[in-house]
Amino acid sequence: MAGQVLNTAGTTTINSNLEDLVTINVTGGSTTIVGGGVSYLNVTDGSLSVPNPLTVYFGMTVSGGSASLVGADQRSRSTRDRHTKVDRQRVGDAERPVGDVQVRHAASDNGGRPAGDIDRDKIFQIAVDRGGAGRIQNLAGQITVDRKSCAGGALSYLNVSDGSLSVANPLTVNTSMTVSGGSSSLAGATVDNLSVTGGLLGTSADLTIRENLTLGATSFAITDGDPNVTLSGSDVLNDAAVGFGNGTLTATGDLNMTRTNLTASGDATLTLDTTEAATLRTLTLDTAFDEAVTVSLGPSSLTFDRLTGNGVLQWDGGEGDFVIAGTAAPGNSIGWMDVGGTLTMQSGSTYEWELGADGADEFSVADLNLGNGGTWTLKLGDAGAPIGPFAGGPQVLFEYATLAGDTLGDMVLDQSAVERWVFDAAGPQVVNDSQNHLIVLQGLDEILAMQWKTDGNGSFGDPANWFDAAVPEGVDAVANFLDDVVTAGRTASVDSPVTVGTINFDNATHSFEIAGPSTIVLKASAGDAQINVQAGSHTISAQLSPVSSLTVDTADTTSLTIAPATRSFFDGDLTKNGMGDLAFSNYFVTGALNHQGGSLTLGEDVLTLQGGPVTIGAGLALHASGHINRQVIGTLTPAK
Q1: What confidence category does residue 88 fall into, taking pLDDT thresholds of 50, 70 and 90?
Q2: Domain's final residue, options 415, 448, 481
Q3: Residues β-bridged to residue 432
Q4: Residue 184 lies inside a defined structural domain of this protein
Q5: 180 membership: H or E segment, kind and range
Q6: For a Cys staple, 72 with which of 86, 168, 266, 268, CB 3.0–4.6 Å?
Q7: Are 627 and 606 in contact (CB under 8 A)?
Q8: Predicted local confidence at residue 226, as pLDDT
Q9: CA proximity to 65, closest of 99, 91, 40
Q10: Pair 437, 471 in one domain
Q11: What are 98's strand-pairing partners?
Q12: Basic and acidic residues composition bias: which ranges (predicted)?
């Protein structure tokens, strides 16, 4: 049968070796191929059954009838440059395809060129897993992708559950596309229904969703170039993170983004051609001064649960209302926002305004409406504001062209996050400077450092005992015990382990004690942990556990006593600086000791264990008692 063409129209069984058979045409009847190999296999009518593995070397076409392939094999030959392995192919008629085809491990022997093209008009499903980069085109059925690339074409279904899908050319999905995992990049596509429940989806070229887009807790990135993404159906974006920049996100149907975090960067356009006012969960701006996010709406009203970031937000044509239903917070920390159109602080909304070392948040608004007939809140925040007397003068909250009703509305001032801010006798005042079209905060007199705020004894770990409820906890954390609040000596009890990088004492009038029963872990990300005494006499009786080495600096005329109730090991190095006094006892120090300033007195047997050397600076004396089992460089004086 070598080199022959075999046409079957009746009941035919082929059970010979088909290695050199060129073509089998099934044009009717019932044909059974027991197995073997064939160059081309065409089914136009009738039925084809392959109960054993069959190799089709060059191409298979099914344009009618039905075909059932139990299995297939592939043989690589140097004389042939295309090989495609087909498993379990079942194809129905042209009106109602019912089968699937799985393509596995498409081989390539031409330096990376896709090894096999699949070009079928009646295929219902193709599942592609982890094989080569075979090109898939002109599919009228369904394709399920594990790890594959797609050159473009048209198909009915596209499912991505793992791996990555890259579409290099325009692709049309006529029924639906589902992304439940992996990573997909669409260079340009038209999809009737797109559902993304997991994984990542991105596009760098135009993308059109003709019917419905549903996003779950996932990321949808519109990046590179100037892609335009058009949403035409009833779109629901739930708990999704959508990012777009230098392009256009357009919704022409109903859009539900009340659970969506939307980030816009560069010259981006958000077009919501809906029949009702639109609502967004969060819009984060990230634009430069010469860029803008432009919003175009049918009803000219866009409501935010949260509006944040830096940049320019404007209406197409300049007319429209941006409504804050939840929170407005310019910047990422300190920032600015320029709003073209009307900004309305709806009843119940909050403006989170922060002051930092280099400036403060500010809104620049064309038309400003505060409260909209109800109550709104101005919440003050500290983003690293300078410590000490405040000389910054009135702080601008809003700059506006017009102010609705020339009034601030019913405003509530929330100072809960800025307990360290001290205002003058008149207290904080929010004032409308109508002459300069500014709304300002005035009366700020001084900003205190973060510190223990309770004028009494209490737990170190209780947020109520610290300004802004900020308990010092963690690597490099700073615990301040200063003179701004207390009126007598106070004790902070460490009830559970706490980690800090620095402890500062600065109170010449009243003494602080940091007591146990638990432990203070000393840990700095770089260099030594620090205990500094700027003024007064203070005590640490809680146990210290040094992960980092410790430097103690006591200023002139100050003193610090470090003495836990129970003797323990101090495994780090200890350095004493400053002209003040340090009394250090009830520890076994195993690291090096470096005495470089003031007076240092060690309790009994602090140096009894072998360890690092003891270095005493010129002109200084170290007072010690008990057994000393160290190399000593300098003058060692018996303790008094």
Answers
A1: very low
A2: 448
A3: 439
A4: no
A5: strand 171-186
A6: 86
A7: no
A8: 61
A9: 91
A10: no
A11: none
A12: 74-96
Rounded to whole angstroms, what are the CA distances from 443 to 165, 408, 433, 485? 59, 18, 15, 21
The stretch 175-200 carries a mean pLDDT of 68
- What is the Cα–Cα distance from 349 to 66, expressed in whole angstroms? 64
Q: Are residues 18 and 42 in the same domain?
A: yes
pLDDT tens string 516-525 = 999 999 999 9
Measured between alpha carbons, how far is residue 137 from residues 119, 152, 171, 393 in Å?
A: 6, 6, 9, 67
| Comparison of pLDDT for 212 and 413, the residue scoring more | 413
Per-residue confidence band for 237, with pLDDT thresholds at 50, 70 and 90? low
CA atoms of 459 and 337, how far apart (whole Å): 42
How far the first Cα of the chain sits from its last, in Å, is 114
CA separation for the pair 45, 26 (Å, rounded): 7
Segment holding 478, helix H or strand E = strand 478-481
Read off the pLDDT band of 317 (50, 70, 90).
Answer: confident
CB 407 within 8 A of CB 374: no
pLDDT in tens, 190-235: 776 777 666 667 776 677 776 666 666 666 676 655 666 776 665 6
| Structural domains of the chain, count | 3
Percentages helix, strand, coil for the chain (3-state, rounded to 5) are: 0, 55, 45
Q: Which residue has the higher pLDDT, 497 or 156?
A: 497
**531 and 556: one domain?**
yes
> Same domain, yes or no, for 431 and 357?
yes
Those residues with Cβ within 8 angstroms of residue 549's Cβ, 6 or more apart along the chain or in another chain = 528, 529, 572, 573, 574, 575, 591
27: pLDDT strictly greater than 80:
no
CA distance 356 to 330: 13
Q: What is the mean pLDDT of residues 114-122?
A: 35
Structural domain includes residue 230:
no
> CA triplet 168, 172, 177: central angle to 5 degrees?
95
Q: Is residue 321 part of a domain?
A: yes
Question: 420-428 — which CB contacts under 8 Å span 24+ positions?
Answer: 420/382, 420/447, 420/448, 420/449, 420/450, 420/451, 420/467, 420/468, 421/380, 421/382, 421/385, 421/446, 421/447, 421/448, 422/446, 422/447, 422/448, 428/380
Which DSSP symbol is given to 17? Answer: -
Which domain does 508 fall in, by range?
458-638
d(CA 611, CA 587): 13
Please indicate, yes or no, whether residues 592 and 467 belong to a single structural domain of this protein.
yes
Q: Does 596 map to a domain?
A: yes
Same domain for 602 and 552?
yes
Q: Are 260 and 235 in contact (CB under 8 A)?
A: no
Asked if residue 305 has pLDDT above 70, the reply is yes
User: What residue type is 511 in one-letter code?
Assistant: S
Residue 394 has phi, psi (to 5 degrees) of -60, 140
Full-model pTM: 0.65
CB 505: neighbour CB atoms within 10 A? Answer: 27
Residue 467 is which amino acid? Answer: F
391 CB-near residues (< 8 Å, 6+ apart): none
Mean pLDDT for the chain?
78
Residues 464 and 554 in one domain: yes
Looking at the fold, whether 443 and 470 belong to one and the same domain comes out as: no
